[in-house]
Amino acid sequence: MEKHFQKITRILVFFFLIIQLVACEVEQGTNIKEETSPNLFTESNTESAPNDNLKIGFSMDTLEEERWLKDKELFTKELEALGVEVDIMIADEDAALQIAQVETMISNGVDLLVVVPYYTETAAAIVEKAHSAGVKVVSYDRIITNANVDLYISFDNEMVGEIQAKSITNLVPKGNYVYIGGSVTDNNAILLKKGVFNVLQPFIDSGDIKVVYDQWTEDWTPDNAYKNMLEALEKNNNQIDAVIAGNDGTAGGAIKALEEKGLAGIIPVAGQDADLAAIQRIVQGTQTMTAYKPIRELAKRAAELSVELAKGETIEVDRKINNGKIEVPSVLLSPVEVNINNIEDTIIADEFHSSEEVYGN
Ligand code: BGC
User: Fold this and answer.
1) Does 11 have pLDDT greater than 80?
2) Does 35 have pLDDT greater than 50?
3) Separation of 3 CA from ligand 1 center, angstroms?
């Protein structure tokens, strides 16, 4: 009897162990499924980060001007908020390096490239390389010419030049003008100049305005602008009535030269970008105006459209711009004039700079 009982106990223990083992396997199986099932994974992640697998490369020319630091920060934030991974490389004003960096980003598997080209023309190679790897290209702030660019997003650069020239001709409708341009390697510099001369031309034709000096500024550097302005002053025995500069960096260089001749604050100067130093000069009275471009808006719109393009969606844009090869789908935002009368309502209201930064209190 006892033997019989032991046998039954052994059988029960055996069955109990088997049940435990099977239960354990089932549990493990469920866990594994939860961790690896693609369906469960995508479903649970769709709502929080819909673009989780997208990677966008941002190839920048330079961080020299203050604005590019804002572009870098704001564009990255916008993309990350959309759940996108961002890979950023800075070419430091070197066309060949920019191409090499883009190649690296392509082999790192970016789904889309956003490019601020250093050299408008040689950047066409970037588009070709990207396209042959199936990667679309967005031209950010500066257009890439003679290439099949997928999207161009910027501010209306011709309008920037027009705003500058209108502001200065209102103050100085007659006299000797100096034009300190941007870098000739940058298509924006060409558009800015076009805008400036659209406004100046009737005054030039009537003989009221004479452009006594007109020069590009290599690499947009304030130092080259300073040298050009000194040359302009010397060649014209300081008989200058107004200065229009490509941006605030070059305006700063020109104002330094004017300061050395005791002319800062006497001769009106225009710039663009609303750099903090330029706004402070407007407050001090050595710079007349700057064309402010709300970078936050550019970054937001560029991020949204880039994600749509990267996902293969059709994008809605308002205009097309010919880049010498195709009609590029384009978005152009509007610049705003900032002068001594509207600093609070523009850049301070937009938190582009704080009141403390501008006024120092
Ligand atoms: C940009 C300006 C900038 C300049 C120099 C231009 O293409 O539009 O905002 O100041 O480049 O970097």
Assistant:
1) no
2) no
3) 96
CA distance 107 to 9: 66
Is the beta carbon of 156 within 6 A of some atom in ligand 1?
no
Q: How far is the CA of 247 from the centre of ligand 1 (A)?
A: 7
pLDDT at residue 49, rounded to an integer: 52
Spatial distance between the Cα atoms of 200 and 150, rounded to a whole number of angstroms: 34
- Amino acid 121: pLDDT: 86
Run of H or E including 258: helix 248-260
**Residue 64 CA: which ligand 1 atom is closest?**
12
Structure-block tokens of residue 241: 């009535």
Residue 24 has pLDDT above 90, yes or no: no
Cα–Cα–Cα angle for 192, 333, 289, rounded to 5 degrees: 50
Q: Which pLDDT band, with edges at 50, 70 and 90, does 21 fall under?
A: very low
State which of 247, 275, 276, 297 you would mutate to test the pocket of ligand 1, scoring each by most atoms of that ligand within 8 A of its C-beta: 247
For ligand 1, the distance from its centroid to the CA atom of residue 221, given in whole angstroms, is: 11
DSSP bridge pairs for 154: 332
Report pLDDT for 5: 47
Residue bearing the CA closest to ligand 1, atom 12: 65
168: CA distance to ligand 1 center in Å? 20
26: pLDDT strictly greater than 60: no
Domains of the chain: 55-149+297-333 (3.40.50.2300), 157-293+338-359 (3.40.50.2300)
CA of 50 to the centre of ligand 1 (A): 33
Q: Which amino acid is at 361?
A: N
Contacts of 42 (CB under 8 A, 6+ apart): none
How much of the chain exceeds pLDDT 70, in percent?
A: 86
d(CA 11, CA 64): 81
CA–CA gap between residue 218 and residue 34 (Å, rounded): 59
**Is any ligand 1 atom within 6 A of the Cβ of residue 70?**
no
Residue 42 pLDDT > 80: no
